[in-house]
Design a protein that fits this description.
Layout (H helix, E strand, L loop, with lengths): L1 E5 H12 L13 E7 L8 E7 L3 E8 L1 E4 L1 E6 H10 L4 E7 L2 E6 L2 E6 L15 E6 H12 L13 E7 L2 E7 L3 E8 L1 E2 L5 E7 H10 L5 E6 L3 E6 L2 E6 L9 H4 L5 E6 H11 L9 E6 L4 E8 L2 E8 L1 E3 L3 E6 L1 H9 L5 E6 L5 E6 L6 E6 L7
Antiparallel strand pairs: 1-5, 1-7, 2-3, 2-6, 3-4, 4-18, 7-8, 8-9, 10-14, 10-16, 11-12, 11-15, 12-13, 13-27, 16-17, 17-18, 19-23, 19-25, 20-21, 20-24, 21-22, 25-26, 26-27
Amino acid sequence: MEFRIERSALTEAVAWAARVLPVRSPVPVLGGLLLDTEGGSGGEGGRLRISGLDYEASARIDVDAEVLRPGKVLVMGRRLLDICKVLPEGPVECAVEGSRFTVSGDGARFGLSVLPLDDYPALPALPRVRGAVDAELFAAAVADVAVAAGRDDTLPALTGIRLGLDGDTMTLAATDRYRFAVRTVPWKATAPGESADVIVSARRLTEIARSLGRSGLVSVALDTGSAGFEHTGMRTTVRLLEGRLPRHEKLFAMEAPAVAVVDRARLTEAVKRVSVVADGDSPVQMTFSRADSSVTLRAGYEDDVASQRLPAALEGAEELTVAFNPGYLADALASFTDPSLRLLLLGAGQRAMITDGAGTDTHRHLLMSVKPQLG
């Protein structure tokens, strides 16, 4: 094997494939990246394919390269990435020389031991493609709901994001039992009546959505055990989580709530500001007043207190006080980009819903209000 490629292209491709490599593995070859080249005529139109996998996920990326001698090699992926990061800018020459894989450019030269190809497992096949979704919308939707996913590995399903496909709508949802985020985006099904309801690791899906690019369409593939995503030469698969998330329809049905409309940016800054004195999980209290069209935020106990008053419109009540975990509230507010937000409120210790200022159902975040505990 021998090929030439720009250092930046090689580094980006190696970094993308290395995302799935296990930090530690009892099987040494799973720490490897498989480099596979095919050459065009006279070195033109060549292709370098870099692949990696662990027990949960796989990644494969194709990039253009000048292939002088086609072939395959398996090398330690994280070591190769470290080398790529320190290579000088410009063209890089890579070759297999005996039992070593050499990487050189602008006078710098590195040699890596090769791993046994026969011990490397085959990459899982891409599941059946169900349709495609806009890459930018998909990445934004995953980020919006991932903040509500659980972190407790003893409850695996709650660490995932529900990916639901129904007609021309993709629904993403996540919950840790204290909050529940749902986002819907349009998508293009490959066939009429295409539907699915699966759970994908929130951490894995966030990595995938961030890495696939921000333009074009992402192909979505699903079967009973895995999900796959493909976009402009990049292909990745991930094992599905077992179990199901609670359905959100009944939780999100709020009868006769009070509705407050506030400026998103000002509320976000106010929450950050008063939370400075909120020790641990002590709440941020919000008192809405219809009489003077305001909301007053308060946090802290005894002598360490903070407050801020902001404009807010309130309908459905004359005055209403709610309180929230400051971290959960900050996460929810940060997942929105609209200039204003609507808060649907039932009262202290009850559910509260955050939507965009227009009150659409495309992005909704449910929080449990706690009882105010200010001293």
